[in-house]
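Data availability (excerpt). All sequences and predicted token strings are deposited with the supplementary files. A representative entry, 3-hydroxyacyl-CoA dehydrogenase, is shown inline so that the format can be inspected without opening the archive.
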Amino acid sequence: MDVKKIAVIGAGVMGRGIAQTAALTGFEVIMNDIEEEALIHAYSNIEKDLKNSVEKGLLTQFDMKQALSNIKLMNRIDEAGHSVDLAIEAAVEIMEVKQDIFKQLDEFCPSHAILATNTSTMSPTEIGAVTKRASQTIAMHFFNPVPKMKLCEIIRGIETSDSTVSIAVEVANRMGKETVQVNEFPGFVPSRINALVGNEALNMLMEGVASAGDIDKAIKLGLNYPMGPLELMDVVGLDTRLRNLEYLHKYLGEKYRPCPLLYKFVAAGRLGKKVGRGIFEYGERV
Ligand code: NAI
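Structure token line:
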């Protein structure tokens, strides 16, 4: 199958990055979200990011216009799914929400369409099992920020067919990504490591080992990380990271118990860059 049209369900941090990357690489993209405001914010964020690339000479005006014209916004999932070849779900990391979206996509997408989830930790088998097309379900796990990060992890569920895997790999490659194929296991590869590192950095902050700025500086300069684990948590979103850790704690045990400070930040609405404040202050929503 030649994938031409992709629906991206959920227009948050990841959805907008997937939509932008797909549109830039020539796919027609339908962006969907239950929140009208999220769709508008996502589109203006994509526009701003592409304009930045043009100003830096990384993209032509023509390519920017072409990419923007490849993106349509639709807040009804039945309309969003109705003529696509692939749907990529990038909604909140809650199993019931993902299953509900998959049920609807199964009902509204053409029978040939593949349904992928961008989950960072959860079982694609469990998500795909609510559909009547489990063989056409898979996880395509992109990384944040999607336009810059080179990897897409491909995780097949128990019922996923070989042809679904091949199509997912091909689409990821056409989007400029390298792939790795990972067997289904909570957290797959990078997220399983990253959740642990970030949680430990938060534990150190809670214990008063050093300031947030100095913990990040120590890890960047001492371990050669491009970004400190606390800032990275602000990029990921503290609510998303908390859900990741809760899931990993449930399936992989005690070492993934979320740091109590993480609950506090989330309760205070300090969700990270997407709201302008998290562990650090950013002044504006990014
Ligand atoms: P986010 O919180 O930024 O955005 C989630 C969006 O989903 C929101 O705009 C929300 O309105 C929307 N949404 C919720 N229920 C919906 C529904 N029923 N239909 C349509 N839209 C719905 O979350 P983020 O960070 O973009 O994460 C999305 C997924 O990607 C999660 O599964 C997460 O684990 C995964 N992920 C996140 C990464 C990150 O760094 N933030 C990296 C890789 C994967």
